[in-house]
Amino acid sequence: MIVVHLHDTKGGGTSTALLVNNATTGQGATVLLPNSLAVSDDEGSATTLGKSVDDDGSTGTRESIDTVLGTEVEGTWRLDTPFLNNLVELVGTIDVDTDADVPDPKAKKGEAPLVKKGEQQTLSGQMAVAYATYRAPGEDESAQLARFGQVMRGILRKLSSDPQGATTTVESLAQILDPSLKEKDLGTFLAKLAERAKGGDYKTTLLPVRSDGTLSEKAGDTVVKEVLGGAVKAPEQGAALRVGVQNASGSKGAAQDARVSLVNGGYAFVDAGTGAAARPTSQITYADEADKAQATEVAKTLGLPTSVVRKGRTAPNADVSVVLGQDYTAG
Predict the structure, then answer these.
(1) Which of 224, 256, 283 delimits the end of a domain?
(2) Mean pLDDT on 156-171
(3) What is the pTM of this model?
């Protein structure tokens, strides 16, 4: 699993996706991550994925994604739009079922669009960049992300499924890759995904998030569990326990207070959003018996009685789940 950040060097902004080769299910996938996804920065404070890419760089963002999704991302691929242009040219154009007419930025008013809407449109490098970054006025970000996903899949279908051939393509880009990702490793990884894409064992999916950027239950069940499930690994020995916190206390500031307490206590905070209704008492659950003792310590860290700790279902991206009730007192 690697994370790819598309940087639009002309229009500004970034688009992020996880490229996944799930050996357990025999499936490949592109998981599109909205910029509004709620993550934590290097200091444990709340931020969004889009801001993290700009402010925290590749390592900080990769670790933030791991914390939120319970994944182990192996490397970061920064793909600036000029390199996307070159990549498409190297594989010899791509075919995409386009969903919109994309105007040519250099064209005069009334001239034909650079990319036409229709099935199996052949896109050059310039056209692929325009389509992958296009967002019509009033459109949701998800529409542009979907186009980025289409372009990535189109590239994989044309890329060599031979590791050496794919590596040669990567080397021809002459990119300066993130230290976490070597040219040979990226080439070998993309070759595996290319094989999946050509064989039909590949899908593109959007990670669903709520309006506040937190993961919805649908995201946990259909994406984190099903798409990433075979690739998600337990935290490494000594890694911070992931604690998912849902605020059902009725106090807007309770989640941030809990975040500070947990981060200071050495835990990884995962924002689980706000409950539909206030609850009188808090609840802490753990799924793995090995986490019982730590779940009890989480209760103590939050100033809650240990009686609220029980074994049960936790969020797919958390080791311990906390629902803050009206009995929670900040500090």
Answers:
(1) 224
(2) 97
(3) 0.84
Q: Give how far Cα 87 sits from Cα of 80, 97, 129, 176, Å.
A: 11, 19, 10, 14
Range of the domain at 251: 242-324
d(CA 90, CA 79): 15
Which residue has better confidence, 45 or 220?
A: 45
Element (H, E) at 27: strand 27-33
CATH number, domain containing residue 267: 3.30.70.2390
The answer to whether residue 237 is domain-embedded is no
And the tokens for 193? 């995904």
Q: Is residue 40 part of a domain?
A: yes
**Is residue 84 domain-shared with residue 6, that is, in the same domain?**
yes
| Angle, CA of 40, 267 and 42, to the nearest 5° | 30
Q: Beta partners for 268?
A: 242
151 Cβ contact list (under 8 Å, min separation 6): 84, 88, 94, 96, 123, 128, 131, 132
Rounded to 5°, angle at Cα 106 from 102 and 111:
60
Query: 231 lies in a domain?
Result: no
pLDDT at 295 over 90: yes
CATH of the domain at 160: 3.40.630.190
Contact (Cβ atoms closer than 8 angstroms) between residue 26 and residue 199: no
At residue 38, does pLDDT exceed 50? yes
Tally of domains within the chain: 2
Tell me which amino acid residue 10 is. K
**What is residue 237's predicted lDDT score, i.e. its pLDDT?**
57
Q: pLDDT per residue over 198-250, tens digit each? A: 999 999 999 988 888 888 766 666 787 778 764 444 555 567 888 999 999 99
**Are both 138 and 285 inside the same structural domain?**
no
242, β-bridge pairs:
268
**119: number of Cβ within 10 Å:** 8
Residues 253 and 316 in one domain: yes
